[in-house]
Amino acid sequence: MATLTATLPRSEGESASRATVAGCYSGFDAIFPACDLWDLTEGIYRGQASVSFEQAQRNQREFLLDEVGCGPGTRLLDIGCGYGTLLAQAAERRAAATGITLSREQVRRTRSAGLDVRLTDYRNLPHTWDGQFDAVVANGSVEHFAQVKDAVHGTDDAVYRGFFRTARRLIDSDSRSGRMATTIIHFERRPDPNDLLRNPFSFPRGSDEFHYTLLARAFGGWYPVAGQLEHCASGLFELIHDEDGTDDYRRTSEEWLARVKRALLSHRLLPILARSLPVVLREPIQFALLLYTMLVSQSWNWQFRGPNPPTRLLRQTWLAR
């Protein structure tokens, strides 16, 4: 396997979208580890209230690794690897797993655990990485790839097409796996992207536009709609498995909310404040919006609640063509 090297390009400043996403995860890093939260996507509860949060997260990682046929010697790339929990579980299967992330905090933590993680954007992966992997996982990261302005200009399809094109060139054409697994939030009630460029507080509290605009400002990103990714993957990947995990994300998000609230009312508050200070000084508005969106408006949880939630979480498996 060729030596894999990639970093964020020093000749370019971070784009506004990349800075927003990186700032979002800096905010999470100030809070989530203090709450014993190391996974940043949904678990799999299988509809059972008796399944613990930790077991649900392990279930989801096992599912993703099974879907891409991860086993001994599998060369796996995790795009948006978070704190490396999937990489660690892949290592248990004796796979050769590499992760990439935009978060410097995540890189420091994962490397200290002995994991192979690079600070880079998937768009910047060099062609020396071409054909170097048997399988790819993008677990919750694709939601950050297209931005509201892409939707306004009608270029969100091009963003997703570019992602699939990149993923396809990374996969070895001779690989026996040749699969990619994704978990991605989709719009059920797609908003007008022009509305999301406005101030969230210009909308009625609790409206779809209010919540979606907060989510875009705090987290950075835009969601696809059902069928959009399959269209954008045409000729590159074939969708071979598709399942709804929305209720799993609802359960996961409610557990996140409960743990963060408990931590803020406990002895963990001071360490959280100390870790938050650099983020507050660097990105005060985004950090305030992040806290507001998580704890006050609860916009993150809102999108999965109710009998007809405004979004759907889809777990999808793709076969390289």
Helical run tally: 12
**Mean model confidence by pLDDT:** 94
User: Strand content of the residues, in percent?
Assistant: 5-15%
**Number of beta-strand segments:** 7
Tell me the major beta sheet.
7 strands, mixed
Question: How would you describe this protein?
Answer:
The protein is α/β, with parallel strands linked by helices and 321 residues long. It is built from twelve helices and seven strands. The protein has a seven-stranded mixed β-sheet, sandwiched between helices. β2, α4 (104-112) and β3 (116-119) form a beta-alpha-beta unit. α1 packs antiparallel against α10 (269-282), α2 (53-67) crosses α3 (85-92) and α10 crosses α11. The relative contact order is 0.17. Residues 5-14 have low confidence and may be disordered.
Write a brief structural summary.
With 321 residues, the protein is of the alpha/beta class. It is built from twelve helices and seven strands. The protein has a seven-stranded mixed sheet with strand order 3-2-1-4-5-7-6, with helices on both faces.
